[in-house]
Amino acid sequence: MDDHSDDIRRPLSPRIEVFAGAGRKRWPDDLKAQIAAESLEPGAVVTDVARRHGCRPQQVHDWRRRARLGQLVLPASADALSFVPVVSESALPATAEPSGPPEAAVVTVEFQGARVELRGAPGLAVLSDVFIALRRTRSC
Questions:
Q1: 3-state SS string for the chain
Q2: Spatial separation of the C-alpha atoms in residues 5 and 78, rounded to whole Å
Q3: Distance of alpha carbon 46 from the chain centroid
Q4: Cα-Cα-Cα-Cα dihedral sign, residues 95, 131, 128, 116
Q5: What is the rounded distance in angstroms from the CA atom of residue 22 to the CA atom of residue 26?
């Protein structure tokens, strides 16, 4: 029951509540993904990340869950390695054998403006060295 008396001896409440919003805040998916990714960094505390961005820890936990389920795509970390699809210019049938000797094979890698050609049958170590060098020079 509300007290509507005009008694001036009663002290006024020191608390005033102002509602200036028009409902729930809408978080864009890219911002959710950025906040969730930040909370997954080593040493990050979800509560601190949420406070820094003005949201609740429960929201951050929900965004992390959605990312695990594939419903929210996290931005790629600068340190994370990612794979790209290999595209072949000439699609040979699965039963076809290469027409020339393995020394005649050419592997061409084009990545962010760099082009590397490897002749012969490069081993895994050589290909790994090529990608490491590209990563260092191109900051990918």
A1: CCCCCCCCCCCCCCCCCCCCCCCCCCCCHHHHHHHHHHHCCCCCCHHHHHHHHCCCHHHHHHHHHHHHCCCCCCCCCCCCCCCCCCCCCCCCCCCCCCCCCHHHCEEEEEECCEEEEEECCCCHHHHHHHHHHHHHHHCC
A2: 64
A3: 17
A4: positive
A5: 11
Q: Tell me the two tokens of residue 55.
A: 């949201």
Tokens 């890219």 sit on residue: 30
Q: What is the pLDDT of residue 140?
A: 46
Across-strand partners of 117?
Answer: 108
Per-residue pLDDT of the chain (140 residues), as tens digits, is 555 556 666 666 677 766 666 667 889 999 999 999 999 998 999 999 999 999 999 999 999 999 999 898 888 765 555 566 666 666 555 555 555 565 667 778 776 677 778 787 777 777 777 777 777 765 54
Number of neighbouring beta carbons within 10 Å of residue 32: 21
Maximal C-alpha separation, the chain? 103
